[in-house]
Amino acid sequence: MKDYGLVSIITPSYNSSKFIGETIESIQAQTYKHWELLIADDCSTDETRSIVEKYAVNDSRIRLFVLEQNSGAGVARNKAIENASGRYIAFCDSDDLWLPGKLEKQLDFMNGMGCALSHTSYLTCDESSNITGIIVCRKKETLKTMLSDDKMGFLTVMYDVSKIGCKPFMPDLRKRQDWAYKLIILNICDVAYGMKEPLSIYRHTSGSLSNNKLGLVKYNIAVYTDVLKWNKIRAYMYFMFFFVPKYIIKKRLQHYVNG
Q1: What are the pLDDT digits (tens) for 54-74?
Q2: Which of 14, 62, 209, 257 could form a disulfide with 56 if both were Cys (CB 3.0 to 4.6 A apart)?
Q3: Can you give the pTM of this predicted structure?
């Protein structure tokens, strides 16, 4: 197996004791072994930190960072990114899972394509880890395609720091910062290439922020105004006439597919 360099895996955690052990074990099961797992805990009040510490004692590739105050997933991810030393940056939230060949296959794909940014299709599961569906990615994503419809599962995203030319940090947004982060990177490298094979599993949980996208209107607008520097009129017009229609169509299609 070719060694493409160190992969830094960014994982924010908050009261993740129910799932984080399974998440860590899915990363430890990777066929590609040259990685580091940086877990930034956002002041959990459950057993999350002690669980991570037990894994870290037996695996030096796992590092735990604890935020001084609860600040949100974006700040937690930035803490991990700040301490990352890998050529590649990848993301896996504390309740999601990677299939064993995820890193090996995605790195082969990226180096075969010569691309800086990639993503893949992914499976979905419920809180009991039962597979519930699949999200198939498109072959290419650009800043234009991502402005109105986020088609890149964040748990599948990986970028090459050496090709990007920098290690971007997440914007100061409490929510929707993962979408904004993808837009920031696309503004640098122009295109993300999609790998059709599903290599990760996204877990739907009852407390997931992504379950109600329309409930995050102000954060969607903030991405346009604070990150992309659009004026408010342009931001609201784009949201109403491009983002919302695509969201409604997508939900109707999902309802049709699911019966």
Answers
A1: 999 999 999 999 999 999 999
A2: 62
A3: 0.92
Question: At 215, is the pLDDT very low, low, confident or very high (cuts 50, 70, 90)?
Answer: low
Q: Are 143 and 187 in contact (CB under 8 A)?
A: yes
Residue 137 in tokens: 């990615």
* Segment 35-59, tens digit of pLDDT: 999 999 999 999 999 999 999 999 9
What is the widest separation between alpha-carbon atoms in the chain? Answer: 54
Token pair of 148, please?
Answer: 């109105």
